[in-house]
Amino acid sequence: MWVCRALCGARTPAQLRRTLLPAWDRRRPAAASYSASAEPSRVRALVYEHHGDPAKVVELKNLELAAMGGSDVHVKMLAAPVNPADINMIQGNYGILPKLPAVGGNEGVGQVVAVGSSVTGVKPGDWVIPANAGLGTWRTEAVFSKESLIRVPNDIPLQSAATLGVNPCTAYRMLMDFEQLRPGDSVIQNASNSGVGQAVIQIAAALGLRTINVVRDRPDIQKLTDRLKKMGAEHVITEEELRKHEMKNFFKDVPRPRLALNCVGGKSSTELLRHLAPGGTMVTYGGMAKQPVIASVSLFIFKDVKLRGFWLSQWKKDHSPEQFQGLILTLCDLIRQGQLMAPICSELPLQDYQRALETAMQPFVSSKQILTMG
């Protein structure tokens, strides 16, 4: 484990390195240790030693870059977003929790600096993203195992690459894996201005699907509506409008959705279910309201609706790295064709992490916070 207390000052830097380095778990994806020197190391990282409020437990630390092995890759991180899963992981409320202390961040893009003698498939200059959650991307650079990385084309925008590995993948798989949708079919979703929601809108439009996008009411609702429609959203309605009797008239002109995507839970998910076509499926991939999904018995008996769940980490476990690589390349094709843009982003330097974390946890924030490592 990484341990550094005030008493460390009683030892020389060399003694501290001998104390700390052997204790580091070399099986982790990125090997590093706290810098024992009082001088700043060239590696800076956002580290948390305990679970809790990210604004209180995350600290900017100096780390020591590990020596490279034959199957390792030295990566300079370029940019990494702050996602809800990152926040949940720091809070201790996620399906995968790294060993503590840990570096935050599950997503991002880096550039290969050097590769080990047995590494194939990537070379210096290539862009890479994490193959799985828990890599710890909120750092300036690191040595990772080759198996923990996926190469991505470097001819796509940096923000697209930095946000490619989680939200667009989740959106694409949910649209493809649960219902056999055809052009003209409808999909309904809540949290439509989230990273996944924005990806769903764009990918669905590329597939010829019609989207009904539910958002919370807010003072700038028209501005948000215009922005989502510019992305390809056909309909944008508020949670309050979804509950109104007039929705019956709405579905006279729009086919009832066969697929609902739920990131909220509680009353919002109940409303999505209520408007599903008979035999339709609701897929839950998040629980922003921290309330259970409640479905009436009549929906199961008379409409035969199906409730499913999706977690990208589980999908990766069930599929080969080559299949994930194929998914990434499919999304990159959409990006090159102008059919998939990165979510609305705000870039902040790594040292402004407190502002990025606090903003990411605020309600009604449509802009994804991106940490830049330059």
Note down, in words, how this protein is organized.
By secondary structure, the protein is an alpha/beta fold. 31% of the residues lie in helices and 23% in strands. Strands 4, 6, 7, 8, 9, 16 and 17 form a 7-stranded mixed β-sheet that branches. Strands 12-11-10-13-14-15 form a 6-stranded parallel β-sheet, with helices on both faces. The longest helix is centred in the C-terminal third of the chain and has 16 residues. The relative contact order is 0.13.
Share of residues in strands: 15-25%
Secondary structural class:
alpha/beta
In this structure, how is the largest beta sheet organized? 7 strands, mixed
Instruction: Give unreliable regions as ranges.
Output: 1-41
> CA-to-CA gap between the ends?
28 Å
What global shape is seen? globular
Number of strands: 17
Radius of gyration: 22 Å
- Percent helix: 25-40%
What integer is the average pLDDT?
89
**In DSSP terms, counting alpha (H) and pi (I) runs of 4 or more, how many helices?**
14
Family: Belongs to the zinc-containing alcohol dehydrogenase family. Quinone oxidoreductase subfamily.
Keywords: Fatty acid biosynthesis, Fatty acid metabolism, Lipid biosynthesis, Lipid metabolism, Mitochondrion, NADP, Oxidoreductase, Transit peptide
Domain Enoyl reductase (ER): 60-371
GO biological process, one term: ceramide biosynthetic process
Furnish the topology, listing elements before pairings.
Elements: H1 13-20, E1 32-34, E2 43-48, H2 54-57, E3 58-65, E4 72-81, H3 84-91, E5 102-103, E6 109-115, E7 127-130, E8 141-145, E9 149-152, H4 158-162, H5 167-177, E10 186-189, H6 195-206, E11 210-215, H7 221-231, E12 235-238, H8 239-242, H9 247-253, E13 259-262, H10 266-274, E14 281-284, H11 297-303, E15 306-309, H12 312-318, H13 321-336, E16 345-349, H14 353-360, E17 368-372
Parallel strand pairs: 10-11, 10-13, 11-12, 13-14, 14-15, 16-17
Antiparallel strand pairs: 1-3, 2-3, 2-5, 4-6, 4-8, 4-17, 6-7, 7-9
Helix pairs in contact: 5-6
